[in-house]
Design brief:
- This protein is an alpha/beta fold.
- Strands 3-2-1-4-5 form a five-stranded mixed beta sheet, with helices on both faces.
- Helix 2 links the parallel strand 1 and strand 2.
- The longest helix is centred in the last third of the chain and has 78 residues.
């Protein structure tokens, strides 16, 4: 059994750790609240953007011959790319491990070689350690990112697709449901399929879009649907990545908040247990000293 002094050191150490985890939980709760509001605010914009893209892609002047290259599927898939969104730091429970496991399961399920574009240090480290090919890494994405922060990621994916280095692009991110519910998922990013919502990234945010109504409406676009697609399609691809990163950020902060709260609760339980052990050790020490005194007194009496 540990001595009373050793148990006191352990109790002080665990109390110090619990103060750190409690502070981290409070910080993560504030960040998670901001990220949640930002995610909810941008979902409506993503839905309207998807509706415009659907309408443009279904106009009479747009067909297979003049459709945007990012909308054109390729007959043979030789190489694929996967944008993996994780965090730069740990202490978020199983958040990073879950999305990496989902990405790894996806890579093993498809027959084509996959190059990984890692967004976050944890994803890069885990994928390289497991032997996957990481062609690009983006770190230090702020908690409240702008489109300027996302543009380099989108540019790498779009350029690789247009240059023929990859024939399709997927994105792995953690979908934010609530502060205690997060779902890791892998969705297709390129080529865009406006009429196939289930297969595309951010499709769960635009389920309210009436695809039938969007395709039936015919508008007069200036300078023309095909010309507008050249501007809208790359921007919509950036929007998909942007929304996915917002979802991942909100999921990361909420996961860290839950993990730190659990760590604080576990520390409190462990402190209570160690206090009981310390009291037992103190009682054992007192009993041993009393027995020594009684034994010494008896020895003196017999002498």
């Amino acid at each position: 059994m540990a001595t009373e002094r050793e148990l006191n050191k352990r109790i002080r150490s665990i109390r110090n750790i619990s103060q750190v985890t409690s502070a981290l939980a409070a910080v993560s709760a504030a960040k998670a609240s901001k990220a949640q509001h930002q995610v909810i605010a941008t979902r409506a914009y993503a839905g309207k953007a998807f509706e415009i893209l659907i309408n443009l892609a279904s106009q009479p002047g747009v067909d297979g011959n003049n459709a945007h290259p990012l909308l054109t599927s390729r007959s043979e898939i030789k190489n694929s790319a996967l944008i993996l969104i994780t965090g730069d730091r740990g202490l978020a429970g199983a958040y990073n491990a879950n999305i990496v496991a989902q990405a790894e399961q996806f890579i093993q399920a498809i027959p084509t070689p996959v190059e990984v574009i890692a967004v976050g240090r944890k994803g890069q480290d885990l994928m390289i350690r497991r032997g996957y090919n990481c062609t690009a890494t983006f770190e230090g994405i702020p908690d409240e990112p702008s489109l300027l922060d996302i543009s380099p990621i989108a540019r790498v994916a779009i350029d690789d697709f247009l240059q023929g280095k990859v024939d399709d692009v997927f994105i792995a991110y953690t979908d934010f449901i609530s502060l205690v519910n997060r779902v890791p998922s892998v969705k297709q990013l390129l080529p865009l399929k406006p009429l196939d919502l289930e297969a595309m990234a951010v499709s769960e945010y635009v389920e309210h879009v009436d695809t039938a109504g969007a395709t039936e409406l015919v508008y007069d676009y200036e300078p023309g649907p095909a010309v507008l697609l050249n501007t809208i399609v790359p921007r919509f691809t950036e929007l998909q990545i942007y929304q996915s990163i917002l979802e991942a950020k909100a999921s990361e902060h909420s996961a860290r908040m839950v993990a730190m709260n659990n760590a604080t609760d576990n520390a409190a339980e462990l402190i209570d247990y160690l206090i009981l052990e310390r009291n037992k050790a103190r009682q054992t020490s007192i009993t041993s000293e009393i027995l020594d005194i009684v034994g010494g007194a008896e020895a003196l009496a017999k002498a």
